[in-house]
């Protein structure tokens, strides 16, 4: 609960300052906290806003983080193909930027990938992944 309160307070602060880059970053954190608490619709909302902000004002690194967070939410809600598409897009962006997944996020990303591979099967997973990789990042 303390993590939620601090992140929520930061959201209000950065909204007031109109610091959209910082707001995107704290919304990603808030999304992870909400996901961990099982508040999946609220987590999706926070991460979607973070993605929108990061895409429009940067930094691009936050775009990848928001995509990975959204993928974890979608995976938890049984939207496995969408989760794979989001993870694929994040992976393509990370390759383009030359940036790895943060160590703090590594287990969530790996867990979402492994779970999706089990649910979809190797062939369907590879098909969804490759189709997503072929799409423009926009």
Provide a descriptive summary of the structure in words:
- The protein is mostly helical and 138 residues long.
- The chain has one domain (2-134): Alpha Horseshoe (Serine Threonine Protein Phosphatase 5, Tetratricopeptide repeat), CATH 1.25.40.10.
- It is built from 7 helices and no strands.
- The chain has helices spanning 2-17, 20-36, 40-57, 60-76, 80-97, 103-120, 122-134.
- The chain is globular, with a radius of gyration of 15 Å.
- The mean pLDDT is 90.
Number of domains: 1
* Number of contiguous helices: 7
Q: What does the main sheet amount to?
A: none
Average residue-wise pLDDT: 90
Shape: globular
Beta-strand residue fraction? under 5%
Order of helices and strands: HHHHHHH
Instruction: State the CATH architecture.
Output: Alpha Horseshoe
User: And the CATH topology?
Assistant: Serine Threonine Protein Phosphatase 5, Tetratricopeptide repeat
CATH superfamily: Tetratricopeptide repeat domain
Distance between the termini: 35 Å
The amount of helix comes to over 70%
Identify low-pLDDT runs.
none
Number of strands: 0
Our Rg estimate from Cα atoms comes to 15 Å
Assign the CATH class.
Mainly Alpha
Structural class: mainly alpha
């Amino acid at each position: 609960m303390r993590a939620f309160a601090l992140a929520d307070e930061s959201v209000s602060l950065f909204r007031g300052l109109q610091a959209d880059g910082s707001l995107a970053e704290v919304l990603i954190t808030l999304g992870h906290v909400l996901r961990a608490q099982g508040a999946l619709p609220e987590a999706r909302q926070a991460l979607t806003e973070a993605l929108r902000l990061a895409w429009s004002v940067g930094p691009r690194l936050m775009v990848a983080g928001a995509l990975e967070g959204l993928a974890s939410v979608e995976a938890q809600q049984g939207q496995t193909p969408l989760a794979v598409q989001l993870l694929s897009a994040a992976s393509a962006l990370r390759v383009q930027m030359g940036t790895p997944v943060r160590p703090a996020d590594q287990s969530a990303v790996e867990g979402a990938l492994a779970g999706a591979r089990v649910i979809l099967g190797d062939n369907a997973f590879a098909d969804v992944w490759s189709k997503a990789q072929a799409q423009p990042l926009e």
